[in-house]
Amino acid sequence: MIPVARPAVGEEEAEAVRKVIESGMLAQGEQVLEFERRFARYVGSRHAVATSSGTAALHLALLACGIRRGDEVITTPFTFIATANAVLYCGAKPVFADIDGRTFNVRPEEIERRITPRTRAVLVVHLYGHPCDMAEISEVCREHGLMLIEDACQAHGAAYRGRRVGSFGDAACFSFYPTKNMTTGEGGMVTTSREDVAERVRLLREHGAKRRYEHEVLGYNYRMTDIAAAMGLVQLRKLDEMNERRRENAKVLTDELEGVEGVETPFVKPGVTHVFHQYTVRCRSRERLTEVLEREGIGYGIHYPTPVHRQELYRRLGYSRLSLPEAERASREVLSLPVHPTLRREEVERVAEVVKRAAGR
Ligand SMILES: Cc1ncc(COP(=O)(O)O)c(C=O)c1O
User: Fold this and answer.
1) How far out from the chain centre does Cα 72 lie?
2) Residues 345, 251: one domain?
3) 122 phi/psi in degrees, rounded to 5
4) What's the CA-to-centroid distance between 256 and ligand 1, angstroms?
5) Is the shortest distance between the CB of 53 and ligand 1 below 6 Å?
6) Are residues 317 and 247 in the same domain?
7) CA 82 to ligand 1 center in whole angstroms
8) Which terminus of the chain faces fewer neighbouring Cβ atoms within 10 Å, N or C?
9) Does 80 contact ligand 1 (Cβ within 6 A)?
10) For ligand 1, is residue 150 a contact (CB within 6 Å)?
11) CATH number, domain at 283?
């Protein structure tokens, strides 16, 4: 079996975690502080604040940017549901803008079209590790006085015109779930260069208290443990190398699959560094392809079979008549193949060969 994802963790992570356990200091402490310092430096932001998950990071980033009841936040319908749900947690309304059919990322023109007097922020997702059009999107936000928040949960190390994602918006969010480009088991991070946003995220992560048992506002327990941070420090050191492996694997797949009938390989825009969280193709007959992959013991993923506005929750919230043709078409056609860094060369070649054979029939 070739799995679609496998965390690249081993002895080094185990050793780092063992040291924390032996120290007896398990909750948020020195390891978290060090992880935050190094992560901020890596991304190129002034601050980084670790959280218990990517979802928690999104929730706190939106709150810290002042998003509240009655506000509208423009985002993509083609993402993991956490992106849009974080807007709902704030009592605000997600407004969905359609995607670019080549990169699967939200289109700047579609964002602009959806702006109303209630719009407060734009929440973009660098889907599959491919950065969004940050120059155009930043310009739209600047012109209309909107906050810009990046969901970089799938894009650790990705870059746009040489600058790492997570450093563009008023705030950005990362996830360290086991399938991500780097992991802490569960975990997340908010990066920002705004002192006020960083301070607010820290306050809200800690039940609204700067000092123990003195609670200024309604907050949460969204802290990361030192156990997770110790793992994160090791993973961060390996991130560039792991991303390089992903890119190499993606190149092998694309070299083999380019031009194959019925399969469209991932598009990479000039000027971006794509970190291939997912290697996602479009296919004409997904059912037939997945049948063969299953038979041949090759894992795959469908990211995502239902766009957010078509989910039951969102239908009930009044989105059932919304039509976003590119996102809907993508959800019917996309298929993610194994690309993770622990794959052996023969495994990548086998994936390509099976897809080629199945698509050619
Ligand atoms: C685009 C996107 N946003 C948000 C999340 C939520 O992150 P987490 O699972 O760490 O809460 C994920 C990952 O699961 C994601 O892929």
Assistant:
1) 21
2) yes
3) -120, 130
4) 30
5) yes
6) yes
7) 6
8) N
9) yes
10) no
11) 3.90.1150.10
Task: Measure the CA–CA gap between 201 and 62, rounded to whole angstroms.
Answer: 9
> From the CA of 236, how far away is ligand 1's center (Å)?
18
pTM attached to this predicted model: 0.98
Domain count, the chain: 2
pLDDT by 10s per residue, the chain, length 361: 999 999 999 999 999 999 999 999 999 999 999 999 999 999 999 999 999 999 999 999 999 999 999 999 999 999 999 999 999 999 999 999 999 999 999 999 999 999 999 999 999 999 999 999 999 999 999 999 999 999 999 999 999 999 999 999 999 999 999 999 999 999 999 999 999 999 999 999 999 999 999 999 999 999 999 999 999 999 999 999 999 999 999 999 999 999 999 999 999 999 999 999 999 999 999 999 999 999 999 999 999 999 999 999 999 999 999 999 999 999 999 999 999 999 999 999 999 999 999 886 6
Rounded CA-CA distance 282/262 in Å is: 8
Q: How far is the CA of 80 from the centre of ligand 1 (A)?
A: 6
Out of 79, 175, 303, give the residue to mutate to test ligand 1, the one with the largest number of ligand atoms within 8 Å of its CB: 175
Sequence-distant (≥ 6) Cβ neighbours of residue 164 within 8 angstroms:
42, 43, 44, 157, 158
Residue type, position 38, single letter: R
Range of the domain at 310: 239-359
Residues 141 and 272 in one domain: no
Q: In degrees to the nearest 10, what's the CA dihedral of 31, 36, 39, 40?
A: -150
Choose the residue to mutate in 80, 151, 235 for probing ligand 1, maximizing ligand atoms within 8 Å of C-beta.
Answer: 80
Tell which atom from ligand 1 comes closest to the C-alpha of 186: 10
- Tokens for 265, please give them: 């390989």
Residue 95 sits in the same domain as residue 157? yes
